[in-house]
Amino acid sequence: SQLVRPCICSFLRLPCLLLYFLAMSSIGGADQPPVKKLKRGDDETGTINIGGPMEDEATARKKLEEVGFDPEKVNRTKMRPFDQEMPYTTWQASPMTHFCRAGDLPMCRFLLAKGASITKASDDGWWFPMIAAVRGGQLHVCKWLLDNGAASDVGRRVGNDRSSLWYATRSGDKKYFEIGKWLILNGALSVLDG
Q1: Is 151 exposed, middle or buried (0-12, 13-18, 19+ CB in 10 A)?
Q2: Alpha carbons 70 and 49: distance in angstroms, whole number
Q3: Are residues 152 and 118 in contact, defined by beta-carbon separation less than 8 angstroms?
Q4: Which of 12, 138, 174, 178 is close enough to 133 for a disulfide, judged by CB 3.0 to 4.6 Å?
Q5: What residues contact 114, with CB distance under 8 A and at least 6 apart?
Q6: What is the pTM of this model?
Q7: What is the mean pLDDT of each run of 10 residues along the chain (194 residues)?
Q8: Helix, strand, coil proportions of the chain in percent (round to 5)?
Q9: Which residues, 6+ apart, have CB-to-CB distance to 189 below 8 Å?
């Protein structure tokens, strides 16, 4: 059975419940059939379905080197400046996490084809591709991650017990509202009984 996960604190309850009811009303209630999800795997040609066009090798290597990653180590995390406006604030990121936050889907596809994990957390446990995509406001990347095997990351929490939904409810920006709605429709409020 599935339970609705209570929100971390009282001031977060209202946004979560509001998003939940708006999400349910927009699809006509909980009686709707579940959304079909693509499965990642080998097709009949022996190639991995990465869900669309990817970056070419030369451009991808250049992009990785420009942001300080070793193109040969696609799963290694590294301390990175959080963004250009706050160069003194750092975060630990893998190449996949970095490009998910940036919304560079062709680069994410390239990394997946090279063996990068779409669910691997940073060594400190605070970052993984889904939460990075949410924090970057990249709904298209969130959908791609879900379609390629990151379903368990929709409700996953980081070291401070915050989830992707928590981050999506922190902003009044419409794109974060849409991400929050999508997260709820894809299981962010549900957990398996332990």
Answers
A1: middle
A2: 24
A3: no
A4: 138
A5: 74
A6: 0.71
A7: 42 49 46 35 55 92 92 82 58 88 96 92 83 93 94 83 85 87 86 34
A8: 40, 10, 45
A9: 4, 5, 16, 20, 155, 165
